[in-house]
Specification:
Seryl-tRNA synthetase, transmembrane, signal, membrane, transmembrane helix
Length: 101
Amino acid sequence: MKKLIYITFSFIMLFSTAGFANATEKTDKTLTTEQQVKLTQFTNRVEEIRNLDKSNLTRTEKKALRSELQLMKKQANAISNGGIYLSVTALLVIIVILLIL
């Protein structure tokens, strides 16, 4: 019985790696006008923050700017890369659940 589980797990891992290989290839994806407008808004806001005199800001204001920049970076990556993220931990949990069932 254990041998059957190991063979099944091996086939699952073998076929799942082929999907990851195709996902890493760059594709020419054209953005919609709405997405292009959103990206230009992000770049304009980043330029505003870069040109801002940060020496007069308090610690909480600087922290708010940093969190705003991180959020914009995540949103810009989601727009340009398709927006599907799956962590390694999530993959491991899925595999463990499949093995249990």
